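Study the following:
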Amino acid sequence: MPAHLSDVLGSHDPLAHESARFLRPGFNYIDWKQSVISKLSRSAKSDEAVKHHIQHYDSAISVWLLLEVVDFRDSSVLFTGLTDDDQQAVTTSLGLCIHYNDPRRNPFSSWLKQLTIVRNTAMHHARLWNRGFIPVSSAAFSSTPGFYVLPTGQSEHILGALTMISHLLAILSPQSSWPARIKDLITNDLSHIPHRYDTELGCTSNGATSQLWQ
């Protein structure tokens, strides 16, 4: 996703991240910039591209390089700060069909927050199964392939995050075997665990995962 963000923002200016003028009014640009400066300072010690730029160029790094070294949270926060048109450009490039009424509140922003929480939960080896995360709109994504397995209104369990990740990987890394392996894990291995059901993943009914991401 960082490449899609940088392509859209960089189309305005290679250094578009150096000021808030290309971002939406009200975005907390100062806090975001402080966070990415911290990441950039650490990368300057180990990332060869950043080290090369600092050594050979007397200018700020481009938005393309910046978004290669910041983490997923910083990229997600930046998406919330994009203008409506730029947010739409990013989600369209990711193959997401989104229907929503308020152009100031792109539902993908909430999905990125949920994915950030899921990422952090997994990174700390905490439980993902049968727990709730922040609710995100599934209705807005009903026209996006594969999302029909989710509850009609909103999704707040791990199946939603898995569905979004599977979709994004199909766009960003088409050769990835991750979606197929996750699907096999859910549809085959889960059935051998006593008293465990796919409704605990966030499915609308038990057995619904048999049609997962088709």
Q: What stands out?
A: Residues 101-214 form one domain.
